[in-house]
From TrEMBL:
Pfam families: SecD_1st (PF21760), SecD_SecF_C (PF02355), SecDF_P1_head (PF22599). Residues 438-603 form the Protein export membrane protein SecD/SecF C-terminal domain. The keyword Membrane applies. The lineage of its organism: Bacteria, Pseudomonadati, Chlorobiota, Chlorobiia, Chlorobiales. This is Protein translocase subunit SecD. It comes from Chlorobaculum thiosulfatiphilum. One of its GO terms (molecular function) is protein-transporting ATPase activity. One of its GO terms (biological process) is protein targeting. Residues 333-435 form the SecDF P1 head subdomain domain. Keywords: Cell membrane, Membrane, Protein transport, Translocation, Transmembrane, Transmembrane helix, Transport. Part of the Sec protein translocase complex. Interacts with the SecYEG preprotein conducting channel. SecDF uses the proton motive force (PMF) to complete protein translocation after the ATP-dependent function of SecA.
Length: 619
């Protein structure tokens, strides 16, 4: 009797905890429907303000829906390990650049190959030891390969965590971020609507650098040296932009005088060299028109062009265009010192805000003690000079140092809007990626398609439950009702565990719940058939129930344990939808073992001897 009382208390506790866990989901649904019921926007807004805390709490604790049900983005991203390897080299020369270019081509053809092994093979082919460029001269090639492989593995892990931090700060609920192979990340973001913004947030390397800007005379000489460089191809977006006003171009910046930047049509036909798409303002500022931005950037990144520049310098374009008096856009070009004075590693805090002077978006930054000390020294030694704030190889601003800055504060301006400023704040807080990443695959699921999936999933659950419940009642009479009550508790437990642990419900997860319903009644079928056999042998109802549960237990336990093991392996080795199926299957299998062995048995123990339960109750 005491044992049965304990079981009843346990069942009541499980049921109450399940209802408590699911309650926020119901509240979220009810409040959402209430908001939709208002006919005027004012009434809806008033209700949202009055019930703001309840709405936020319900949404935060409610059952999360996966990408396939709520809509969102699915991305496969690749970490550029080859770029990471190049960053680790310390003694680069023309031979190194040539070998790495060959490795890059080979890597593109063999996308599954280990990049570090390809690099090692490339240098071995030239009979050059890796220690000439990497780590210590005393290291063997194998030691260097091992170190680089370790760096590559660490880079993938760091990239995953940094991207996770960025997504968490952006506010995506329950993102799925998994590694695939040695270079790839699989990312699923449910509920995302601004795909372009998320794409920028994920791909930004966030490599922040503070670099000295060279004077205008040095810039002019550098541009003259590279002016005759041929252009590989015309700009892809040339047909969409108006010509730059000729009034802003005055002086030659190449071997021959530079005319006004050509109109797009002329660019498509007559642009032969770099000087054709570079001009100079009256104030000495060098620029390129908007239509030629990508083309000029590609040329400036070429090794042969960089070799013509003064030592330890590089040409960088501004991150944002400026406007001429006639409204045409152009990008300023800066000659900066290649070695940064300071990097973003010293940044401890970043905050998106508005500038006090012109009320434009900006990001203010604070530095740690080391950064504060260096920043004070750098600004003190370069009063009257420009320092470029470079983020991912684009100059956001190049202010003139007016005085020494002892506080360790700096500002990034030249930002388009507040959303972009907030995104910069996020990626600076999360830290820089160890290597660039690129999107290999992108799929978007719309919310309307997700709503259709939810509707179809609910129908499958309802029809599946109805069919099983009717069958059990028709075939097993009153005992079938006990099995149906246990099945209701089973589904309740599965959904409550998903909600309680903030696991996302996916379409394959719904399939797992439907499969769980079949497994739950399957255990009852084994027990009921055994009880029927015992009753057929003339045993009393209580003895038949005891024998039925006792003798069916081993078979039920074996089937559930093997199912749990299979589901666990699916979760460990599967990705995405397979894991969603495995999670619900594991929870449902454990719940069905509890409901079949404990719940129905307790109901029978409670009802045996009453008018409700007799030998005919099992069909």
């Amino acid at each position: 009797m005491k044992n049965n009382r304990f079981k009843l208390i346990l069942i009541a506790v499980v049921a109450l905890v399940s209802v408590w866990s699911i309650w926020p989901t119901y509240r979220d649904y009810a409040l959402t429907q209430k908001l939709k019921s208002f006919h005027s926007a004012e009434d809806s807004l008033k209700f949202a303000i009055d019930n703001r805390e309840a709405i936020e709490q319900a949404k935060d604790k409610s059952l999360k829906l996966g990408l396939d049900l709520k809509g969102g983005m699915h991305l496969v991203m690749e970490v550029d390990i080859l770029d990471l390897v190049e960053q680790k080299a310390w003694n680069k020369d023309a031979t190194f650049t040539r070998i790495m270019a060959d490795v890059k081509k080979e890597s593109a053809e063999q996308f599954n190959a280990n990049v570090v092994d390809l690099v090692a093979a490339g240098f071995k082919k030239e009979n050059i030891r890796l220690s000439r460029y990497f780590y210590d001269m005393r290291d063997s090639d194998q030691e260097i390969v091992n170190k680089l492989n370790g760096e590559a593995k660490d880079a993938l892990t760091r990239a995953r965590e940094i991207i996770r931090n960025r997504i968490d700060q952006y506010g995506v609920a329950e993102p799925v971020i998994q590694t695939q192979g040695s270079q790839r990340l699989v990312i699923e973001l449910s509920g995302v609507t601004d795909e372009a913004r998320v794409r920028r947030l994920l791909m930004g390397t966030a490599k922040l650098e503070f670099k000295l800007v060279k004077d205008s005379e040095t810039l002019l000489r550098a541009v003259q040296r590279i002016g005759s460089t041929p252009l590989v191809a015309p700009a892809a977006n040339a047909v969409a932009t108006a010509p730059v006003d000729s009034s802003v171009t005055t002086a030659p910046v190449a071997a021959a005088p530079v005319p006004a930047a050509p109109a797009p049509q002329a660019a498509a036909a007559g642009v032969k060299k770099l000087s054709d798409v570079i001009g100079m303002m009256p104030n000495g500022q060098v620029f390129t028109p908007e239509y030629a931005r990508d083309q000029v950037t590609a040329v400036l990144n070429r090794p042969d062009v960089q070799a013509l520049l003064p030592q330890d310098t590089q040409l960088l374009l501004a991150a944002k265009p400026e406007m001429t008096a006639n409204g045409e856009k152009y990008f300023p070009i800066y000659l900066v010192q290649k070695t940064p004075e300071l990097t973003g590693g010293v940044i401890t805090e970043a905050k998106a805000t508005f500038s006090a002077q012109d009320n434009q978006p900006e990001v203010s930054m604070s530095m740690n003690d080391e950064g504060t000390s260096k920043w004070a020294r750098i600004t003190g030694a370069n009063i009257g000079k420009q320092i470029a704030i470079v983020l991912d190889s684009a100059v956001y601003s190049a202010p003139v140092v007016q005085s020494r800055i002892p506080s360790g504060n700096s500002v990034i301006n030249g930002i388009g809007d507040l959303n972009e400023a907030k995104d910069l704040e996020i990626i600076l807080k999360a830290g820089a990626l160890p290597a660039p990443v690129r999107i290999l695959e992108e799929r978007t699921v719309g919310p309307s398609l997700g709503a259709d999936y939810i509707r179809a999933g609910m129908y499958s659950l309802i029809w599946g439950f109805t069919a099983v419940a009717i069958f059990m009642i028709l075939y097993y009479n009153k005992a079938g009702i006990a099995a149906d009550l246990a099945l209701v508790l089973n589904i309740l437990v599965v959904i409550s565990v998903l909600a309680g642990f903030s696991a996302a419900l996916t379409l394959p997860g719904i399939a797992g719940i439907v499969l769980t319903m079949g497994m739950a009644v399957d255990a009852n079928v084994l027990i009921y058939e055994r009880i029927r056999e015992e009753l057929g042998e003339g045993k009393s109802l209580r003895m038949a129930i005891d024998a039925g549960y006792s003798r069916a237990f081993s078979s039920i336990l074996d089937s559930h344990v093997t199912t749990l093991a299979a589901a666990f392996l699916l979760y460990v080795y599967g990705v995405g939808p397979i894991q969603g199926f495995a999670v619900t299957l594991m929870i449902g299998t454990a719940a069905s073992l509890f409901t079949a062995i404990v719940v129905t048995r307790s109901l029978f123990d409670l009802l045996v001897g009453s008018k409700f339960m007799n030998e005919k109750s099992f069909g």
